[in-house]
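Exercise 7 asks you to align residues with tokens for two separate proteins.
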Amino acid sequence: MTPLLTADVFGWTMRPARRRRARAFLVAIAATAVIALHLWYDPPVGCTDAAPCGPDPLNAVLLGLVAAVPLVAFVSLPVTAMLAGGFFAADVLWQVAHPPLASPAWLTGADAALVVLAFVAVRLAPPGLGSGAEMWAATTSHLTLPRPSNLPRYGLGWRLLAVPLLLAALAVTGTALAAQSRADARLDGAERVSAEVTAHPDEYSLRVRLPGGADARVTVAEAGEHPVGSHVAVLVADGGLYQLVSEPYDTSGWLSLAVLLAGLAVACLARARARGATARALFDGEQPATEVYVWALGGRVAVYATDARPGEPALLEFFALARNGSDDIRPGVLFGVPAQRHWCAVAVDGELLVPRGPARSGRFAPTYGGVGGGPDEPGDAVPDAARLPLRPVEIMALRPEDVSADPETVHTHRHNRFSGYAVVVGCSWPFLVLLARLLPNLPYWGAAALTAPVTAVACLAGWRLFLRPRVSWNGAGVSVVGSVGARLLVWSDVHAVRADRHGAVTIETDHHGAGLVVTARSEHPLLPRVLSGDERTGAQLAGALRLAAERAAARARARVRDVVSLPPAPVAPAAPLLLYVAWLAETLAYALLLR
């Protein structure tokens, strides 16, 4: 059987969630754009006494369908396509029934384009793990798993979520229809009178004076359409029910919420069914089978490569049905593709550990040798993975100039400025939107006084985290200007170099994790590669620094002195003029938002 090596799966075991969700984002953005176009370009509905705006269940249904599309897209794309098709059909029927209120032809074409996009997104396969994973799957051994006698009911959580959503949809529908029926029965015998508008308590209600001098409050769609002093026709029913003749009692709008909840419920059921089908496919055919090391305890299973070194993280982990009581790392057999969000099973000590869900990253699992030791190592002294020598495959992933053996060469790194200024401009937007919702209308300079400190904090954070940090190094040491602090260090003063998945690289200077932080490009950046420039990723920068430290330690052990001087001393730069210009421009521009 093929052993699973670290080099076999290097670089492809992780797949960012946003790549998987790209199709859902595309459909959701398109649906949101269609909703905005309808709100902007649809002919306005005029309510008159001769042609009142009565309940319109079909219109409520199509509104609920299109409102559900952006939300359901992140749960089930097949259901999203059906909702988009239902919206288009309902919209066409409504326009046929209401020719004067029909949408422009190009807008109906946009509705059809949304349907096509939704069905194409269903048929479009999500991005895979790449050619490396395909090569590995083609060259490794394959076996068929023994099918357990009773597989769990996969997707139970999604089914449990669908139940209250469906019950809520039924409750909203029943309540709305019952209220409409009662109101219609009361209005059938209502008296029609002419009333004078005396006040606008709010934008959705009128205060009117009825014949005889009595005052009443009437709910309307838009109070501004009925000026104070004008006369309106009012239906007066028993029990204090007052409605405009042009706007009868209407609860059909609640049907939109019911359709939205029902769509989410159906999407949850479809997601549960798809989850179960994907899980059962693991046992229906041959799967890659590789030798691995396994740690399993309490239903939690961590998988390690056969060449894993003490202190290295697990490749992946998942939760199994069986609650194995072992607390040490043992040899086992992995069935399936060792990657995040893929379904895998493990056989250890003759027992098949059936998964409860897909695999996730191994960074949450104990490190190899960290619990009970490895097969040949005690567990009382586990090295730090950041202090281990780089593997050949890790060195090959670095830039050629960083692998250069010349210790005199000074290498430099600085985060891409475009990314830094993008953060400066964008990170204050959510806070200002919240302020705009909470605060009343303000004079312009009063709003500027509020936006100034918010944008100042954003500029300071962007400067400290992205624009200020830089690092230079050679074979003698490293010169660092971090987010906080600046130091010139020889390699013997560097305890470890770590990088997280967001691109932050920490150069630790003691055993407690304190050090200097430098920002690099993340493994899966939000900005496209063309905008982030040819910049090192966090893993590449950390690997280059670790490689330089390893070589310096090797020269020190061999008592070779071939480096003349350290890199230039760090100089913490002052904030550039462009940053102050960005702060001033943001303050003045965002002040308009608060008005």
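Second protein for Exercise 7:
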Amino acid sequence: MNQIISRRDFFDGIAVSALVSPAAARVTHGAPGHAETRQNAAYRPGGFTVRGDTSEALSVPHALRDGRFWIHADTPEPTGERYDLVVAGGGRSGISAAAEWLRRDPGAAVLVLDNHDETGGQARRDALRRRTREGRPDGVMCDAETFGTDTLVRLSAPGWADAAPIAERARRDLRMLHADPPDWFPRLSAEEKQERLAALTYSEFLLRVCGVHPDVERFCRTMPCREWAYDTRAFGAIDAWASGYPGFGGLGLDRDKPSRLNSPSVRQEWPANAGGERVAAPPDDRARLRMSSPVVFARDGARAATVGYFDGHQVMTVEAGSVILACWSAVIPYLVPELPDDQRRALRSAVRVPLLHATVRVRDARAWRRLGVRRVRWTGAYWGFCEFEPPATVHLLATPCRSELGPGAGAAAGRRELVRTPYGRLEHTIRDQLARLLGPAGFDPAADIEAITVDRWGHANAPEYCRPWHPFYPDGPFPSDLARRRFGRIAIAGSDSAPVGRADAAAAAALRAVEELAR
């Protein structure tokens, strides 16, 4: 009973778990808002760091969601501070909103609040996404999780399909998809073919339309994970066609322009439309930043809005002439319960997709040079993609989404599993997979790994309307139009309000929110 319990621990359920035995805490580990913080907080190996959506960062939002926060919180205490603008969210959208407000009004008083301990949010993830999509994988690890054995297939090698540990018929099907696929819909017009593709996932296209061996679908399953954070069981066939995936060459579709049925990101990234992403404004030193200070409510008023945030011990309040909520849309109904019911439902429908990014500092690059590949896609292991960055850094991505359930339900299920995943397992899987990949080239994880940093984003990629999951796309009406509706002095930003998964969507949403409040 000598363990120190912080105020924040009450909101993450640790006050309850502290009363049980260590063995019981281990058994109940990972239950939402319960022993997850306690167990992971005890995990402190040398050279292993977790950032992003840590237990500490999520404790208050989860307590609000579960109805536990106000049971333990004291009466809010006014700070006496008044700002022209208060922004909830210190990520790309929140920082852009603050910078744009100060550009229009250089003398304004601006406060940015965030539940994380640093600004920038997922800008690191966005930077990795930009880098990894510049080059396709040059290797595929057909792993034991999928095929019962680990076999590295070097895609630059002649006849690479023959090296895959798959059935002989699957090899023939794989070669056919890449080299000479037929017209699967010979009697349909181009528009009808696109409609047919829009009704299918890529996995369904491979299995139902192409009739390939199941090993082919398993070999291709993780292809979209590094960009979309879910696999081909959730990735639409219409976007797979636009992304150059194998199997569509015989359809005769126009490659000069995207289909109207392609998702917004695919359409915007089409070569003819590519004009570079909108760059978010850097943090403005005139804005006051308060990290580890999650917003717990925002109330509109006759003369000013009131914003409450938790400073780790007490709920503090400030007054604001305007408020921009640049946080996850799904949390906004808990911050502004006065919103109309239809708007609250629309906000809750924005389910973000979880993602993990690991940065591993290795002693040297000799094993990678001997291996002869730089970017490797795994077919079923926990970390689905790894890339070597000279001189001595390895990046890994993991996508916990349960893709077989679809991007929305799968993201929610994957996030629940991620909360239950001990930090120790994250470290173990990184070391294990690098040993399996690089061990034959002389890599020893115990000696050759110097440090590991994991960015854990339970709420990573913004949701994006796409076929076949959103039949109202592209004609509308869209839930996001209702979700981002201004509420008095409160405007809603964030990439969820676009909703587009591209990194620049957050900056564009911030500019829109500032413009709404300026009218």
